[in-house]
Every structure is written in C-alpha cells, then in structure tokens.
Amino acid sequence: MKNFISILGSNSDYSTNRLLLQFIQKHFKDQANIEIFEIKNLPAFNKPEDRKAPHEVQELADKIREADGVIISSPEYNHSVPAALKSTLEWLSYTNQALIDKPVMLTGASYGKLGSSRAQSHLRQMLDAPELKARIMPSSEFLIGYSLQAFDDNGNLTDQRKIEALERIFNDFVHFVDITNQLVNANESHQKQAPSYSWEAK
Amino acid sequence: MKLVGIVGSNAEFSYNRLLLNFIAKNFKKLIDVEVLDIKDVPMFNQSDDQTNSEVIQNLNKKIVEADGVIIATPEYNHSIPSALQSVLEWLSFKIHPLDGKPVMIVGASYDVQGSSRSQLHLRQVLDAPGVNAVVMPGNEFLLGEVYDAFDENENLKDAQTAQFLETCIKKFIRFINVVNVLQSPEGMKDLSDAEDLYATGAIDTTVEGIDMSADDWLEQAAEATQAVEGNTYVKLNRGLLTVNQLNYFLNSMPAELTYADSNNQFLYYNHHMEKEDMLAGRRPEQVGSPLAECHPERVFSSVSWVIQQLRSGKQDVVRTQVPTHGPDKFVVHSYQAVRDDNGNYLGINEYVQDIQPVIDWYLEQTGQQLTGGDVDAVSGATSKVDTVSGATAKA
Ligand SMILES: Cc1cc2nc3c(=O)[nH]c(=O)nc-3n(C[C@H](O)[C@H](O)[C@H](O)COP(=O)(O)O)c2cc1C
Ligand SMILES: Cc1cc2nc3c(=O)[nH]c(=O)nc-3n(C[C@H](O)[C@H](O)[C@H](O)COP(=O)(O)O)c2cc1C
C-alpha cells in the first residue's frame, strides 16, 4: 500500500479537477491511500525575507515529505498553470523545497477540448526548475477535456477508455515511485553534500 | 505616445521595477510611461469575483487608455510569477482590456538566461483567447544576472544593453502604429487622410480670417459676425427663445453635446462643467479648433471612419461604449449625423451619456433583473478556447 498526497491545482469552489482526484482516490483505494490537499487556503506567494514557510505551506511540505509520491491535478488558465498553483510551487521552492526528488504524476482537467495539455507542459517545465527539481514521471500525459461533461452524478468518469488509460498510468506510477526512491536513496550520500539550490544565493 | 509598464513582480524590492523606471526615465523623449505595480492585486479565484475591486478597475482603465503596454517579468521556476499570472487571469475573466493591445515583453532575472523561459510562457499566456494581446515578435530583451546590472543611480551599467533596449523601444513604437492601422475599422487601410481633419477648407458658415486654434476664437468670431447673445430673441423651428434661454435649455440636456460642422471644425459644446467633471472632457479654449487638434493622432483613422459613415449616409448614428469610467457607469458616445431638410450632411452631433441610471430605473420600474453573469464568462472563455484548440488538437 502506497501513501500519496495529491495537490488540487484549482482554488475554485466547484472544481472538475477535484472530481478527478476524488475519482482517483476512490478507484485506486486498494493500491494507495490518497489524501487530497486543497491549495485555496494558502496565502498568495510574496517573497518573504526570512524564507520561512507560513504554517499552511509547512503543513503541505510535511505531507509531501511523508508521502511516497505526489499527484498534481491542474486546470488550464490562459494556456498555462493557474496562479494559485504557481503560487503554491513558489512557496515550496522558496522555503523548504519539499518537492526535490519526489516522484510526481500529473493529471489535468479543463473545460476546453485540449484538456489542459498546454498547462501540463508548462507545469513539467516548472517542476524541472532547480529549486523544485521533482522527479516527474515521463511519457504519462493524462488529460480530461470538456471536463464539465466528463463525470456522472456519482463522480465517476464516464469514458471507459479514459479509465483504462488512467489505470495504466497509475500502475506505472506505483512502479515509478519505487524505482525513483531507490535511485534517490542510492544517491543520498551525494545529495547530503550538495546544498539545495538557490537562485538568489549569488 | 502613452504607455503603461506593468511590474511583473510583487516583491518589495524588484529589479523589474528598476528596469521599467529606467525605461520611463531614459526614453522620456520617445514615450510617456506610467509604471504600475501589481502588489495589491488579490489572488485570482474563479469563485470569488473581484473584478470590480478598485485595484483591478484601475489597472483596467489605465490599460484601456494606453497606446501600448510593456510587461517586465521576472522568472520564477522557469515560468512567470504567480502574481503576474493572477493579474492576467483577472484581466481575462470578466474584462479583457488587453484584447488587441500592443504589448512588449521585457524581463530581468538572476540566471544568465535572464527570464528567457518565463518570457516564452508569457507570450503563450498573452496569446490565449481570453487575453488576446498583440505581442511584438522578436526583440527579446533579457536582462540576466540582474543583481549586477544597475549602477547606484539605477541606470543600466552596460551602454550596449541600454542601446539595444532603445532599439527595442523604437521598434515597439512602430509596432504600435502598425497594429493601430491593422485594427482600424476598414482593416489594413489607414483612413486618416479620408477626411480633412485639419479643416483646411471652408463651407458657407465658416467664419473666415480667424485663427481656428486661437484660445479666444469664439470671442473673435462672435465679433466678426456680430453674433447675438444674452436676452436677444431668436426665432426657432418652432418657438421663440432668448439666447440665454437657449443656453440653459441645452445645458439641461441629460448629455454632453458637441457640434462639429461638415468642415470638421469644432463649433459648440454645452459648456456648464469643468473638463475634469465631464465624461468626455472639453475646454472652453478648444471651441473653434479643427477636429485634428481635439484628438490624438493615433485615433485619426477611426475619427475619419466615423465621419465618413455619417457623411456618406451609410449610417445615421455610430455608437461606442467607453469602458474607462468604472463599473458603476455605462458611458456611450453617440455620433449622430446632423442633416438639413434636404438630407445634406451638415456635421456631427456627438452626445455623451451615462446610460446606467436609465437602465437601473428601467429595472426598478419593471421589477426585472439582468442575467448572464458567471456561467457565461467561463463558458465564453471555453468556446473561444475551442476554436483555437481545433488547430492544435492532439491525436
Ligand atoms: C481566467 C481563465 C482562463 C481560462 N483559460 C483556459 C484555457 O486556456 N484553456 C482551457 O481549456 N480552459 C480555460 N479556462 C477554463 C478552465 O478550464 C475552467 O475554468 C476550470 O477551472 C477547470 O478546472 P476546475 O474545474 O478544476 O476548476 C479558463 C478559465 C479562466 C477562469
Ligand atoms: C520562487 C522563486 C523562483 C525563482 N526561479 C527563478 C528561475 O527559474 N530563474 C531565474 O533566473 N531566477 C529565478 N528566481 C530569482 C529571480 O530571478 C529573482 O528573485 C529576481 O530578482 C526577480 O525579479 P524582481 O527583482 O523583479 O522581483 C526565482 C525567485 C523566486 C522567489
């Protein structure tokens, strides 16, 4: 049994990405405990001089550290990642850098036909930045387009092919988590010596 | 040329703010830049619409009024900062001030790459259908290793960098002009010359021999024509009023009225307020001036287009809404053709009104409500998104 934390990339009261994460939580409950973390209560990022995380951010960081892996589900706003999720990642990168070396799987839902594909590619680039440096699972795009119509009244995905695709990716992720954590642990001695990256430590 | 510069950082101390201040200071002769901060803009939330807050309305107004926008973005985690992203979300949700606006991107960051990646993301965001800005291609101005870029007087240390920035700014000025022509109502054509906006000709009623631009044109012209005033009676169709009565009557109209004749000379407005208090400001000294002197050059093409519509009879009235007065007003400029009994074009009656009180009154009297708020806006964004996505759809 794996322990995952999932980050809901939308701060909207009604969110189709929340529906998606709830579906994942339910559908894979035999393989993993998945907690859904809401970012709507986090303060907006504004570079604090002391580099200290507010307690809501620290709470998220602790959960990330304890989890075997992280699932992020993002909508698409203006072809990119919503400000609320960007802000969450800025907090993590600027304070405790909890995402470094964490196995991450991405999903996304949006109202348009492309289902957040552009947001996801931005998100991958962001997670690759040196202060975040997550281990993102490659070749695993999972998108829900027309997300308002994608779920039935019980919150289940209606498209059977989507469910199968999700199962494949989720199974991959369970293995990816093991492999990645092995890799990271093998490198741990080396990790300890290398101080974590900071843009502003010039 | 009036530009706004948006500081893409919400940090207390920001190199991107320095960069915009430098641009404003150094290129004063070329452009007039007002630098705007985004520190106080709240985090975007689809379920908590704050479009009508003062900060967002202020940004909206400044952007709508500007000829172009310069955005200075830092790079945060290889993208644009959430603070800037949030602003662009507000400005693409219920309002769209950047739609069709010429935008130039600059950026400063710590890395040697100096915001190259965030600039690319910003281009893609500005290109999204809800934003729909017109971003100047090429001319990528990146300021890397920014902690070392400014001297103690907040000037760019490197002369070559400052020189390149100037080249970019000059290109942006030309870019703005090209975009304006592109977006003038008749497409590619610049219509500025279709009308004699300098009123160089004369019609029967033109008072000749007096400098149209003179501050006291009215006094001089009144003397030359021995115009009547005060309690002298004037016979009208149909009625009899003194000039005073006529003035008070026109001043009591629920609109700002302006008369420009068919020679494109501004002859009259119902002056009873100071410029600052008017919806469309006019000054007493402007009376008599050619229309060219009453408008900035960038709108000449649009002004000419409106006059052409009326003069040719294609339209009797052209209306535009001017969204810069805030959410509690709905200001409409109507350009109504003035014609004689035979239908000949005599000039324009421009009347400017805030019709919001009338709408409110109507709703109150009939007990009706306006609908079409939340749902539309988002699905509106979505349907626009669809049109675009078709082109780039993945298999
Ligand atoms: C400011 C704004 C911009 C948007 N831009 C896009 C877009 O570029 N592409 C897209 O597919 N949907 C876009 N949408 C619609 C979102 O997909 C939709 O609002 C929703 O947030 C999807 O995620 P959620 O249901 O989990 O909140 C946009 C919505 C907003 C409010
Ligand atoms: C959360 C965060 C992420 C950052 N990521 C990057 C980055 O990806 N690339 C970079 O060159 N600088 C990065 N920086 C450093 C910025 O370039 C630096 O803070 C810069 O001063 C920001 O511009 P400003 O001074 O206008 O706020 C980052 C800073 C923060 C706070």
Automatic annotation (TrEMBL), chain A:
GO cellular component terms attached to this protein's record? cytosol
Per its UniProt entry, which superkingdom is the organism in?
Answer: Bacteria
Question: What Gene Ontology molecular-function terms does this entry list?
Answer: FMN binding; oxidoreductase activity
The UniProt record lists the NADPH-dependent FMN reductase-like domain at 5-146
Under the heading Pfam families, the entry gives: FMN_red
Please give the start and end residues of each transmembrane region.
Answer: none
Q: Which SUPFAM superfamilies match?
A: Flavoproteins
Among InterPro entries, the record links this protein to: Flavoprotein-like_sf, FMN_Rdtase-like_dom, NAD(P)H-dep_reductase
Q: Which family does it belong to?
A: Belongs to the azoreductase type 2 family.
What PANTHER family does the record point to? CHROMATE REDUCTASE, NAD(P)H-DEPENDENT FMN REDUCTASE LOT6
State the protein's name.
Answer: FMN reductase
Source organism per UniProt: Oceanobacillus sojae
From TrEMBL, chain B:
Tell me where in this chain the NADPH-dependent FMN reductase-like domain is found: 1-146
Q: Which InterPro entries match?
A: Flavoprotein-like_sf, FMN_Rdtase-like_dom, NAD(P)H-dep_reductase, PAS-like_dom_sf
A Pfam family found in this protein is PAS_10
Cleaved signal peptide residues? none
A Gene Ontology molecular function term for this protein is: oxidoreductase activity
A Gene Ontology cellular-component term:
cytosol
Similarity-based family: Belongs to the azoreductase type 2 family.
Q: Under which name does UniProt file this protein?
A: FMN reductase
